[in-house]
Write a structure and sequence with these properties.
- The complex is a heterodimer of chains A (129) and B (118).
- Chain A is mostly helical and 129 residues long.
- Chain A contains five helices and no strands.
- In chain A, helix 2 packs across helix 4 (63-91) and helix 4 (63-91) runs antiparallel to helix 5.
- Chain A starts with a helix and ends in a 7-residue tail after the last helix.
- The relative contact order of chain A is 0.10.
- In chain B, 84% of the residues lie in helices and 0% in strands.
- Chain B has one domain: 3 helical TM bundles of succinate and fumarate reductases, CATH 1.20.1300.
- In chain B, helix 1 crosses helix 3.
- The radius of gyration of chain B is 18 Å and the shape is elongated.
- Chain B contains four helices and no strands.
- Classes of the chains: A mainly alpha (129), B mainly alpha (118).
- The A-B interface holds A 1-5, 7-8, 11, 25, 28-29, 31-32, 35-36, 39, 43-44, 47-49, 51-54, 56, 73, 76-77, 80-81, 83-84, 87, 108, 112, 115-116, 118-119, 123, 126, 129 and B 1-2, 7, 15, 18-19, 21-22, 25-26, 29-30, 32-33, 35-36, 38-39, 42-43, 46-47, 49-50, 59, 63, 66-67, 70, 73-74, 76-77, 79-81, 85-87, 89, 106-107, 110-111.
């Protein structure tokens, strides 16, 4: 119990880490709705067997779903990469390894975010599909 | 007090499920990007997700990780911002576990059912 109480008082003092701490919680609440909504729509409301090209084309005809998916992509990626950043910080002690791991992590985050955003924003169904 | 108790396990599960979901996010961006190659390629990929037993099982594990990470995330927020939250951290851990298992019942029927019924 006393440990849990200390954890409450141990909000990070460093400015960046304080914002990161708040960001986890704020983005976490948004992701709770975005992610569970996504899983519900794609797996429960729609039998997954029906998720195919035609389904995505119909879905992406509505700007609402493109906006939804873009928000989910940006939120999930930033929340996840922030978590991975803390894991690198916690488990990699050598400076060289850390720099390497951060470089891989941030490069991957950038490349995959751009790729995902491009698909969401530029997808056009093929004629006759 | 902490080691080996609910607090430690909730923290380990939170990290492991978080890393797992992040890895899937990378995979999911790639499989979605294949839609640019047209219906032939994309439907072949989604068909793998639908028909391979290991892929259906993988999606079940993924949803389990998302559900646990979501519910335990709410628990963490309540511990941090609700003044009495830390007193109920143990109860809330079992609550998060219970909700996860409960939500996995319909998920299991939908995702794993067809594996066994052919």
């Amino acid at each position: 119990m006393s440990l849990a109480r200390n954890a409450v008082q141990r909000r990070p003092g460093n400015n960046f880490e304080l914002w990161s701490w708040y960001y986890f919680r704020i983005s976490g609440v948004l992701l709770l709705f975005l992610t569970l909504g996504h899983v519900y729509v794609m797996h429960i409301a729609t039998p997954i067997e029906q998720v195919n090209y035609a389904f995505v084309a119909a879905r992406y005809a509505k700007p609402f779903w493109r906006t939804y998916d873009l928000l989910l992509l940006l939120r999930a990626m930033s929340h996840g990469v922030n978590g991975a950043r803390l894991i690198v910080h916690d488990y990699l002690r050598s400076r060289g390894l850390r720099v390497f791991a951060y470089s891989v992590l941030y490069s991957a985050a950038l490349i995959f975010t751009v790729l995902g955003a491009l698909v969401i924003l530029t997808f056009q169904p093929q004629a006759g599909a | 007090m902490y080691r080996g108790r609910e607090g430690m396990w909730s923290w380990i599960f939170h990290r492991v499920s978080g890393v797992g979901v992040l890895l899937f996010l990378f995979i999911h961006i790639v499989d979605t990007a294949l839609i640019g190659w047209g219906p032939g390629v994309y439907d072949a990929v989604t068909n793998i997700y639908h028909t391979w037993a290991i892929m259906r099982f993988g999606q079940f594990v993924l949803i389990a990780a998302v559900l646990y990470h979501s519910f335990n995330g709410v628990r963490i927020i309540l511990i941090d911002f609700w003044p009495k939250g830390y007193q109920y951290q143990r109860t809330m851990f079992y609550g998060a576990m219970g909700l996860t298992v409960l939500a996995l019942i319909p998920t299991g029927v939908l995702l794993l059912g067809p594996i066994f019924s052919g």
